[in-house]
Design goal:
The two termini are about 25 Å apart. The protein has about 140 residues and is mostly helical. Helix 1 (about 1-25) packs across helix 3 (about 55-115), helix 1 packs antiparallel against helix 4 (about 115-135) and helix 3 (about 55-115) packs across helix 4 (about 115-135). Helices cover about 80% and strands about 5% of the residues. It is elongated and about 60 Å long.
Length: about 140
């Protein structure tokens, strides 16, 4: 049962991460001054990219929305994995380890290129998934004689 709870907590944290990424990152307000100047430059300079005219702002928004979608889908998958953990927890260990490692790498990327908020979320998610992998045990049915 602990495994299910750890995975569900990781799923909820991942969904919160997706929502906050969308609100604060993708659709956050742009402050006047240097930030607004940088965004204006990103929006105004178009270039050809694989047959389409795009701006750096297009890439920024597209990748931001793709990250939101990815985080949301990961939250859904983790929630579904928690249901499977009720009967097949042992078999989920490799999947949980892969998710854990990816969130740890995600935290390193966030530390290097973004800021501390996402790092905290990603480390907490990874810790929940590691705890789930460690606690994963299949239910053993005992027969009453």
């Amino acid at each position: 049962m602990k495994t299910v709870i750890y995975i569900r907590v990781a799923a909820v944290l991942t969904l919160i991460h997706a929502v906050l990424h969308t609100i604060g990152g993708v659709f956050g307000t742009i402050s006047p001054g240097p930030e607004a100047v940088a965004v204006a430059a990103m929006k105004s300079n178009q270039f050809a990219a694989m047959g389409s005219m795009r701006t750096f702002w297009d890439f920024y928004m597209g990748l931001g929305l793709a990250a939101t979608l990815s985080l949301t889908l990961e939250a859904i998958v983790l929630w579904m994995l928690a249901s499977l953990a009720r009967s097949r927890a042992n078999q989920l260990r490799p999947i949980l380890i892969v998710f854990s490692l990816s969130y740890l790498v995600f935290a390193m990327i966030s530390y290097r290129y973004f800021f501390f908020g996402p790092v905290i979320a990603e480390v907490l998610i990874a810790l929940c998934l590691v705890a789930a992998a460690v606690s994963a045990r299949d239910k053993v049915e005992t027969a009453i004689a």
